Amino acid sequence: DQIHFRYRMRFADNYDQGNLNHTGGALAAVSGSGKWDGMGNAGIRPKGDDRCTASFETWIDYRRYPAPGYLFSYCYWMDMKRDRDGNYWGNMLGPDVKDRLVPKRGQWITCEIMMKLNRPGVADGELATWVDGKLYSHHTDIRWRSSDRVKIKRAGVDVYIHQSRQDNSVWYDDLAVSTGYLGPVR
After folding, report:
1. What confidence tens digit (pLDDT) does each residue in 46-84 have?
2. Residue 99 in 3-state DSSP?
3. Which residues contact 56 (CB under 8 A, 6 or more apart)?
């Protein structure tokens, strides 16, 4: 019910993904045992007995931040907020605006994400992220699920870029999954 996922990543010197992308690491909890359970549900709010996800990625915020954008968590869970367009796109959780970090292109950073599922019926779930061993964001009192059949079953990295006008490269290394804090790669 609690997993840490650590990875190192480096954006190419010329990386510029445009406005919409999902580039980073992610954890997914699902109730089923099928290979594709919980996938393909963008824009749909989880019911609580089916799935929840949390990723740690960058967003350029319509050019308000330089590429590759600031780090934040993009999450789907049963209590998420509806978007203005009526869909349930992933909700953004992160630090205060003043504490946002934009990774430098061409340099390795170590990212870690921790997802702790709640006890069904209790809002005691958590989400925490670290950058190079420093706590970046920590969110508590999350009701990720309504059923204990929902378990963390996936960890992975993504490079999804929507309507990019150039080739983009991102490198990943030193991926690790643990039930406890891993910390930066030495």
Report:
1. 999 999 999 999 999 988 999 999 999 999 999 999 999
2. helix
3. 24, 25, 26, 71, 72, 73, 111, 112, 113, 129
For tokens 């964001």, name the residue. Answer: 137
* Cα(56)–Cα(163) distance, integer angstroms: 21
What's the rounded Cα separation, in Å, for the pair 23 and 36?
20
Q: What is the largest CA-CA distance in the chain?
A: 47
Number of helices (H), then strands (E), belonging to the chain: the values are 0, 10
| pTM, 2 dp | 0.95
Q: Give pLDDT tens digits for 111-146.
A: 999 999 999 999 999 999 999 999 999 999 999 999
**Distance in angstroms (rounded) separating the CA atoms of residues 65 and 59:** 8
Tell me, rounded to whole angstroms, the distance of Cα 122 from its chain centroid: 22
Q: Would you give the DSSP letter of residue 49?
A: S
User: How far apart are alpha carbons 9 and 16 in whole angstroms?
Assistant: 15
